[in-house]
Automatic annotation (TrEMBL):
The gene is Pias4. Coiled coil: none annotated. InterPro entries: PINIT, PINIT_sf, SAP_dom, SAP_dom_sf, Znf_MIZ, Znf_RING/FYVE/PHD. This is RING-type E3 ubiquitin transferase. Residues 59-91, 425-485 are annotated as: Disordered. Residues 110-272 form the PINIT domain. It comes from Sapayoa aenigma (broad-billed sapayoa). PROSITE patterns: PINIT, SAP, ZF_SP_RING. It is found in: Nucleus.
Length: 485
């Protein structure tokens, strides 16, 4: 066809005409021009292609063999709005024989001619995803337009990777066997230009890459009667089914046409892990302890709705997500509370099921708003024997321990407690005591509980069960002491 016969200068002139990038090797320019013909198929574009084609060969001398003239047709007659054979790739309204535009390799993905390039038109934008870093936009969001009145529609797209993109994929590390970190992904959203859109699948979605269907995330089961199960809408990885070469790839999206409009885009991305996001947060997201202290003072002094502003505010050192002691205390800067959750588990949970909702206040806590509380990080290292602290109005803090906990603490006068008439109800330990067996019972039980605390907490970090924090284990001994008395 005419585009394939263009030289570099012709391709650059065509791409410059529509405001596209003119840089790159010839095969990159050809691919860009083919996509232009496929998706921006306005009469002005085809008029420009014909003009460049005729200008090139009109400059040839009469002694040079002339190529056959392009078939006579009207660009406006291309089947931009025509109906297509259901499930086939040939239009009912065919152009004259000899036309082999890449746009006719299959049905148009967008199905509509776009406005002239000089007219500004709002474009669909997709939200940025923390676990995906965009390297290249292979196809900007393009509307899925039904070609007939059938409920099930098919929309194909063709494109080729550049050698640089192929090398990026091949040289990337594997996240798991067969899954590269650099991927070509398909993203689908509502056709809405008012704000960046979240991923949203149309009904009856199926994605075919070349000759194979690609797996699409299934549904989350619903336990409530009458409530439809939800599907996690996330980027669909196409890489393992693509030709990692200069060959053309064909993507076909099957979708249900039930009135809502959807747009699809193709991107070259690098998928990140929760460990990588945690490391990045530790590098750029730590809030200095002094800034956190100033925030505490300001909240206690200026919060008119707080009933405890004159005394202080309590903050738990236990993560609300997993009921274990915090290791990397974090919260969103948009949150109004001082309570933190553990960044490690928060990122792991959003890696599996991205919701990005604060577990404390149930408000959005996106990754780019997360901070690590430097003050609470410092408190965690200094306060190992309490699971709750209280911030005071001057920005200082003190550990909070229950009354029974204090009685069991080695620093407290436990001999007074042991002088009660226990009458041998507690088990006899191996240790000795000057003041009798009952006292030894209390002392040894306390020491046993304290000495094993750190080991049990380390075990809890590996187990994802519902066992409560360490204070609950101490509580069983305390109840025994009270009943014995």
């Amino acid at each position: 066809n005419m585009v394939m016969s263009f030289r570099v200068s012709d391709l650059q002139m065509l791409l410059g005409f529509v405001g596209r990038s003119k840089s790159g090797l010839k095969h990159e320019l050809v691919t860009r021009a083919l996509q232009l013909v496929q998706f921006d198929c306005s009469p002005e574009v085809f008029k420009k292609i014909k003009e460049l084609y005729e200008t090139r060969y009109s400059k040839k001398g009469s002694d040079v063999a002339q190529p056959p003239p392009p078939p006579q047709h009207r660009p406006e007659a291309l089947p931009l709005h025509s109906s297509y054979d259901r499930g086939g790739a040939v239009a009912r309204t065919l152009p004259p024989p000899g036309i082999d535009y890449p746009a006719l390799y299959g049905k148009y993905l967008n199905g509509l001619g776009r406005l002239p390039p000089k007219v500004a038109k709002p474009e669909v934008r997709l939200v940025k995803l923390p676990f995906y870093t965009t390297l290249d936009e292979l196809l900007k969001p393009t509307e899925l337009v039904p070609q007939n009145n059938e409920k099930l529609q098919e929309s194909p797209c063709i494109f080729a990777l550049t050698p640089r993109q192929v090398e990026l994929i091949r040289n990337s590390r594997e996240l798991q066997p067969g899954v590269k970190s650099v991927q070509v992904v398909l993203r689908i959203c509502y056709t809405d230009t008012s704000s960046p859109q979240e991923d949203q699948y149309p009904p009856n979605i199926a994605v075919k890459v070349n000759h194979s269907y690609c797996s699409v995330p299934g549904y989350y089961p619903s336990n409530k009667p009458g409530v439809e199960p939800k599907r996690p809408c996330r980027p669909i990885n196409l890489t393992h089914l693509m030709y990692l070469s200069a060959a053309t790839n064909r993507i076909t999206v099957t979708w249900g046409n039930y009135g809502k409009s959807y747009s699809v885009g193709l991107y070259l991305v690098r998928q990140m892990t929760s460990a990588e996001l945690l490391q990045r947060l530790k590098t750029i997201g730590i809030k200095h302890p002094e800034l956190c202290k100033a925030l505490v003072k300001e909240k206690l002094r200026l919060d008119p709705d707080s009933e405890i502003a004159t005394t202080g505010v309590r903050v738990s050192l236990i993560c609300p997500l997993v009921k274990m002691r915090l290791s990397v205390p974090c919260r969103a800067e948009t949150c109004a509370h001082l309570q933190c959750f553990d960044a490690v588990f928060y990122l792991q949970m959003n890696e599996k099921k991205p919701t990005w909702m604060c577990p404390v206040c149930d408000k959005p806590a996106p990754y780019d708003q997360l901070i690590i509380d430097g003050l609470l990080s410092k408190i965690l290292t200094e306060c190992e024997d309490a699971d709750e602290i209280e911030y005071l109005v001057d920005g200082s803090w003190c550990p909070i321990r229950a009354e029974k906990e204090r009685s069991c603490s080695p620093q407290c006068p436990i001999l007074v407690l042991g002088s009660s008439d226990v009458n041998g109800l507690l088990p006899t330990p191996n240790g000795n005591s000057e003041n009798g067996k009952a006292t030894a019972d209390v002392v040894d039980l306390t020491l046993d509980s304290s000495s094993s605390e750190e080991e049990e907490e380390e075990d809890e970090e590996e187990d994802d069960d519902d066992e409560g924090p360490q204070p609950k284990r101490r509580c069983s001994y305390e109840k025994g002491l009270v009943s014995a008395c």
